[in-house]
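Entry 14. Ran structure prediction on the chain below.
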Amino acid sequence: MNLIRKIVVGQNPKDAMAYYVGMPVSTAKVSFIVLDDEHLHKYQSKRYLIYIEGPEGTMLWKSVDSMPCMIEYDCKFD
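Output, structure tokens:
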């Protein structure tokens, strides 16, 4: 289950870059954002992976390594 809905990268959220699930990227869109658990366990530092889905399929688009980030989770209440 992917709970990350949005990631804001940068020291100051007002001047930072935001990526969110569903964000358009050329002919694709951001499909999911995940914390790279393997990188965390191996190097003890957080890395977030941003994947896009487009006509060619799903692919890794960006990685955010050791940067100040604000994470917004997808909270669904029934």
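Residues 47 and 65 are 4 Å apart (CA to CA). Will compare against last week's run tomorrow.
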